[in-house]
Specification:
Length: 423
């Protein structure tokens, strides 16, 4: 019998995962793996699967799927007859979305009609604050990254009524630059007041700058009861600015990706993220030998028909806590000090003095020991900010402060709070 150490760890609850029979996989996981092999010819080409009961040793031999591999081979490799999928687009049986993420080129994601809505519904049911919105009418406003497009963020340069879908208003227009002109903030503020949403969802930095625009205009939206932080990594600074403008609103961290769906949900900055059990199996792969609670994430989607993912490497690192999980961020966005300690946005947040308030920040490494903290704020930084951050970054680190009018995102419309040099 294999030792417990050699048995893969999962973030799923035992109820969801099922009980393994000795060295054999739990029935629910084995069933999903075989279903994925049956739905997509890609996996059998990469690694043939035998018909006997699957053991843990077998599952570990299944090659890890990466974003780079999907981009390199193309989404058509997931399907035996892509002409059938193209017909499905015409008949509205399938839909597609383009996402850039951390890859060097765009990734096309094909999904069966209704999949996105259903996996979103399951994510909502996994959290009591969001479950109240399932199967009842409510109003929501979304401020998504500019790079989001197609059916998932169906906005264009259209008047307000034409951006209203099933109670949801998409606030930003596809042609907006990131540095929103004042006229655009005026429009967005008016639409929020008109819609009176219960739920406000968006990229955390965009939401923080929205809070700034509302505060500047002395606009309040008391109808907002829930703020959903998604699309990108949030800072505690963003959370505090949102609390100032939307007092009393619960803040929920909803983590996932276009290609994998929603994977974790929890209260923002409470270290209690939990797996959306009905959406995926989350395999936890040890990341660093000196950090036993930090893991890479391999995702196996559940009940996905088009482009199901098996042992998909998301590129994210999570930390196990006493109450659940914390998303540390993309592996490429984490800094490892000379002594082996990993620094994430979490540590930088907690190094900032309580009297420092900003709308956005980005910490950029410019040489081995030099860093720049670029920040967007209404006032200059307090004394001690640079020194406090430098202490977190390690011995001999030096931090320079630069106050900006805005910080430019990547071409995808997404942000990195930490930008260490590529090693």
């Amino acid at each position: 019998m294999e030792s417990a150490v050699s048995t893969p760890a999962f973030a799923n609850s035992p109820v969801s995962l099922g009980v393994a029979n000795g060295t054999r996989l739990p029935a629910a996981l084995e069933s999903e793996i075989r279903a994925i092999y049956g739905r997509s010819p890609l996996y059998a080409k990469r690694f043939p699967l035998h018909g006997e009961d699957l053991q843990w040793s077998c599952s570990r031999e299944i090659p890890v799927l990466t974003k780079q591999e999907i981009v390199q081979h193309g989404h058509t490799e997931f399907f035996a007859d892509y002409a059938e999928i193209e017909r499905g687009f015409v008949e509205k049986k399938f839909e597609y979305e383009h996402t850039s993420g951390t890859t060097s080129g765009p990734m096309t994601v094909v999904m069966e009609d209704g999949w996105w809505n259903e996996q979103t519904r399951r994510a909502y049911l996994a959290h009591p604050q969001l479950a109240q919105y399932v199967d009842r009418p409510y109003r929501k406003c979304v401020l998504a990254p500019i790079g989001c497009s197609s059916n998932l963020c169906p906005y264009e340069d259209h008047p307000f009524p034409h951006r209203y879908f099933d109670g949801t208003v998409y606030l930003n227009l596809s042609s907006d630059p990131f540095a929103f002109p004042e006229g655009e903030w005026e429009r967005i503020a008016r639409e929020l007041q008109a819609v009176k949403p219960e739920v406000l969802e968006g990229e955390p930095i965009y939401l923080s700058l929205l809070a700034r625009a509302l505060k500047k205009r002395h606009v309040s939206v008391p109808s907002v009861r829930t703020v959903i932080l998604t699309y990108g990594k949030a800072s505690l600074q963003h959370s505090r600015r949102l609390t100032e403008v939307f007092p009393g609103a619960a803040q929920i961290d909803l983590y996932g990706s276009t290609e994998a769906g929603y994977l974790f949900v929890g209260d923002a900055f409470q270290d209690n993220l939990r797996v959306v059990e009905d959406n995926a199996f989350i395999e936890l792969v040890p990341w660093r030998a000196n950090d036993p609670d930090a893991f890479q994430v391999y995702v196996t989607t559940r009940d996905r028909v088009a482009m199901p993912l098996l042992r998909y490497h998301t590129g994210d690192i999570v930390r196990r806590t006493a109450t659940g999980y914390r998303i540390l961020g993309r592996e490429r966005d984490l800094f490892t000090r000379a002594d082996g300690v990993v620094v994430s946005a979490f540590e930088i947040d907690h190094a900032m003095p309580v009297d420092f308030a900003c709308w956005h920040w980005s910490l950029v490494q410019v040489s081995a020991q030099r860093w720049e903290l670029q920040y967007v704020a209404d006032h200059g930084a307090p004394a001690g900010l640079a020194r406090g951050i430098a202490q977190v970054l390690g011995e001999d680190a030096r931090v320079s402060l630069f106050r900006r009018k805005f910080i430019q995102p990547a071409a995808s419309g997404k942000f990195s709070l930490l930008k260490p040099l590529v090693s």
